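[Q] Does anyone have a clean structure-token version of this?
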Amino acid sequence: MRGEATVLHADLDAFYASVEQRDAPQLRGRPVIVGGGVVLAASYEAKAFGIRTAMGGRRARELCPQAIVVPPRMDAYAAASRQVFDIFRDTTPLVEGLSIDEAFLEVGGLRRLAGEPEQVAARLRERVRAEAGLAISVGVARTKFLAKVASAVSKPDGLLVVPPDREREFLLPLPVERLWGVGAVTAEKLRRLGIRTVGQLAELEEASAERLLGRAAGAHLHALARLRDPRPVETARRRSSIGSQRALGAARRRSPEELDVILSQIVDRLARRLRDGDRVCRTVVLRLRFGDYAKATRSQSLGPATDRTGVILGVARRLLAECAPEISARGLTLIGVSLAQLGRASEQQPELPIDWDDGARLDTVLDAVRDRFGAAAVSRGTQVGRDAGWSTPVLPEHE
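[A] Here you go.
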């Protein structure tokens, strides 16, 4: 295990909202909410009123009536992300992206050229501010986990170094929610057991943690609480899934036909991304958020891997139909689809007998028309006359 603090976790602050404030000077210093029906991001001025990501738009406006609500601009966020990641890669070739707005960087080999890790982190922050116009928080530590916790603690717009000889002093007093993988449900379960800090979890035996939290989760969280995280920064990790989701606004009754249009739009886009990248998927995952903010996930594995829109849509429709009673009773505020267990299409062997009418011809024609005339040039029949709205990438809700 590494003995020096050479891992950086760099995390853009309130990313979507910060891009909006950067591009519109009149928004600076004011509470900004990105997304109307559901909060996709909030500026720190808005967070001061208790507004959080994934909160309903109505509730957010009740908390802060003077907040300025702006629609999301995914192209602008993607462009800003590319600019920042170019700075990361110009700093070190060892960059592991986690999402559109955060990454790990290994800088232990830069001492002769660029100085100590803390100096590298300080210059990185200066460059992101000067070249991209955005604030970024950076944690520096011996392991990826500690670096990520340090960047979160340093927010907003901060830099925090955790020396190896002060790791326990830094980590153990923190609330268990700081552990990577502890969400609201797990945190509440631990609190009911009287475990509120990382140190209290670390005091348990590993077997006790596994019994309380399940074997895999218990072992993982117990290891982190005891400062065990041997994972190196991975620069060539193949993406294992792609996804897209659509926020639906306030929970209200939606017809099956309306939900099917939304679902088909999401799947249509994802399947085309598979084909553009010469990829196929083996698992379809449906993600829902209900009106009471509870979440549900349904998944189904396919036989042979596929990139066919019709096959993927058929599976997604079956998964959605299974959830129809819950949707009817609780309302729906978000629907998302992920395609997992990705592989290379060129490496797949077709199964016999080959079905030449499995939708491949239609997909090929639609892709060609869209490539030439634009994404909106042609739609499937169920989508005609319906507003496509907007979809957002599936991202960690940590902003």
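[Q] Thanks! Anything notable?
[A] The mean pLDDT is 84.
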